[in-house]
Each structure stands twice: as C-alpha cells, then as structure tokens.
Amino acid sequence: xxxxxxxxxxxxxxWLLFAITFVVVFIIGMLTASIMERRTETVARVDLVRNLxxxxxxxxxxxxxxxxxxxxxxxxxxxxxxxxxxxxAHIDYLEEYPELVIxxxxxxxxxxxxxxxxxxxxxxxxxxxxxxxxxxxSPQPATCxxxxxxxVPRLMKNMGVAEFYSKKxxxxxxxxxxxxxxxxxHDPKTMNLRITRPALVEALSRxxxxxxxxxxxEMRSLVCAQCHVEYYFQKPTNYLVFPWDKGFSAEEMxxxxxEIDHFDWIHPLSKAKMLKAQHPDYExxxxxxxxxxxxxxxxxxxxxxVEGGSKFTDHHVRSPLANIANxxxxxxxxxxxxxxxxxxSRQNKVMELxxxxxxxxxxxxxxxxxxxxxxxxxxxxxxxxxxxRSAQWRWDWVAAANGVGFHAPVEALRILGTAIQRxxxxxxxxxxxxxxxxxxxxxxxxxxxxxxxxxxxxxLDMDKARKDKENFLRTVVPEWDRIAKExxxxxxxxxxxx
Length: 498
Known about the structure:
By secondary structure, the protein is mainly alpha-helical. The chain has a domain at about 60-335 and about 460-490: Orthogonal Bundle (Flavocytochrome C3, Chain A, domain 2). The chain is built from 21 helices and 6 strands. The protein has a two-stranded antiparallel ribbon. Strands 3-4 form a two-stranded antiparallel ribbon. Strands 5-6 form a two-stranded antiparallel sheet. α18 packs antiparallel against α19. The longest helix has about 40 residues, at about 335-375. Mean pLDDT is about 90; it is low at about 1-5 and about 35-45.
C-alpha cells in the first residue's frame, strides 16, 4: 500500500479494524474460558461438611456435603412422568403384553415384570417383585443385589467378589438396604467418577481396555455401564459376567453364548435352551449415532444445570423426554414438540416390529409344545429350537433395553427384523413336523390374550406366589431393616411424598 493510499484511509476504518480485533480477542478469550471450564469439570472442588469414609453407603450422608446433587437425586422418587411407552410410572408389562408370559414360561420373569422406577426405589422394588420370591420360594442368588445398592462395594471388599456372588439373595438382605446412589459412581475424597463394580472392569480388560485410561467424557457413560448392560451368571458360582468378548452387537453376544453352550433356562413348553437378555442399554447405545458422536449417557439423562450460580450435574436421572430443554435441545435446535414427535415416531416403528416378534415367538413356543406332544423327535426339533432361541434372544436384546430402541433405532429395527424372520422360519418348519405326525393344520392356539390366562396356561399359581411374597414382606423385610439400622445408625425411608 502506498503512502498516498494510506493517507486517504478514513478514520472510521481504523476504528473498524480496532473493533474487529477487539471482537476476535474477545471470542478467543471466551473459547479459552470455556475450555478451562470444561477442564475444571473433571476435577471436583469439594468443601466437605463431614469426611466420608471409603464405603459410606448412605446417600443422605453424602447429601450433607452435596445438597444440590442429593436434592435432585431424591426427585427420582417422582413417578408422575409417563411417555407413550415408558417413563417413571408403574407399568405392568405382562398385563400390557401377555405374550411375554408365554415367552418366559419356566423363568421368574413370567411372574412379574414392571417398568423400572427411579434409582431411589432400587432396593424396594427388588424386594417387592415376585421374581425374587418369598419364604417358600426364593431362587435368586446374591448376584441379583449387585446393581441395586451402595452397600454392594463394601460387601465385595469385605467378603471378596466371588464369595459375594456365591451367596443367596436372602443371605444378604440385612446388609443391602441403601438404594443406588452416590458412592456407586463417585470417589468420596475427590468426587471423581469411578467404577465400583468389578464385572465392567473385567469385561473391558478382556477387550484390551483399561478403565484407568478412560476420559472424563467416557466415564460419564461407563459409570452407567456398570449396571445398564447385558450380563449372565456364570455357573455354578453365579459369578457376574458381561458377554462382550466378541463385541457389543446382538449377533456377537449370541455367538459368545453359543460358543460356551450357555443357556439361562430350558423352556417348559418348547424345550428350547433359552437366553434372557437383561437390559443391554449400553450395548445398544454403542451401536447408535450418539455414541459415534461422543455423546455420553449423562449428557442426556443427567444434563448439567445451573442453580444459585453453581453448575452441577442433575442427579434426577430420568428420560430425556421429561427434560427436553436441558437434554435434547443442547444440541438439537428443533422445538420440544418436534423433538418429541421425532422420538415417538421412531419408537412407534420399533414397537410395531416388536409386537409382531412377540406374537410370532409366543406362538412358536406353543406350537413346539404341540409338536412334542404329537411325537416329534429330537432330531426333528433341534434346528427348530435353535431358531426359537435365536429369535427370542434378538427380540429381547431390543425389548429389554430401555428407550424402546431409541438408543439405536436403525439397529433395533434390523435386529427385530431378524427375530421375526427366525420365528417364522421355525413356525414354517413346525408345519412340516405337524404334517409328518398327522396333526391337523392350521393349529388352533389356546387363548392367552391376558396375563391371567397366559399364567394359568403355563401352570403358575399366582395366588400362592402373592401370599408367599406378602408374608415375606410382612415378616422378613422389617427384620432386615432393624438389623441394618442397628449397624449403620440410621436408615432412610425412600418414599414418594408427592
């Protein structure tokens, strides 16, 4: 630029250049501040009202140091929210989908299966559910307590992990009384996120990943993956194992189970060696777009909130649909109404295929029963039973996960499609068996259109089961609580006071 041209520049140009420079510097400063803020989120600054021992199970004691977090945690007692398919309210899934009773015949889930409530109900609900039995019938191992209570890390430390798993459910009733909470996920000294359940560490280690190397953002999912996963009890010790050695997909975990010839129970109608998926939320999430984009479980289910000038994680763990503004809209710019419609439209599609799979699989179990009764041979039935096992596993991999497939809707639909295909293939092969054994077709199926009819068909005495549970809750549970209160001094009652 020449001297003359420089002289011709107007004063306002200099002011404009100054303003632009100021804005650029300001933006850089804001970005730097944001980065530093994010970094500080990984390091807790804690001013303790009282010191916390390594294995303090009482959430209310932690709440003295972290009142905002504890107050938000107590909101998990709220059961008012219900989305079109899920929520925090009580939903009797066997009542809504009676085919499940047939599919789980011979397994405890055929007795009772409900929508899970908030974390604060974890101990109460596992005590109350008919699946854990009562006094006369109590089949479950102590392993069932693993993800229900902050008492578990203490017990595992004192008893040894293998010894904990080897106990019966009722053996530890007085020791496991505080629901899922603070110390399950946090170091009491630093408040850093930590893993307290060895099954996750062991599973990731077998895949070549050391949890100690996990980033803060990864930990915001891994603390959830301690429990919201598929697992099985390794026989004969009931040792808790995550079947991730081959991968996280439905096919990879199915191949894992097939290779070790694992089955959870033998179906009394079809005689198929069955698998029961638990709640593979983390696995389904890992196959979806949010995981691919680095979005953590806590980003949606426990988003950050600001209160009184303090930024903290909202411990009211819940469906993002109950908190769209602070979860979905952090990234998505659509309206709450549009985002809700987007979620529900995907869930509707998943549920449509899920219901088709349920009806087909339930029918396959009953038809297999009729084939056995007609004199079918093991050679005839073996490939059919493998298809039924595979179909139900794939259905359950989607159905047992929370979110009605939304954690990975495309993958959920694909897996449900293969479940329907296998179930219908099994039913087609059964028609051939019927023809060979002179069974008139089409076969008239029994009426199992309600939970009560289905439970009666598979031979359950529900009146007896309920009376046994009532007796258990009236006589055994109060004694558990009395012993626990003597041991730890206080015992908070978690109740919905709304």
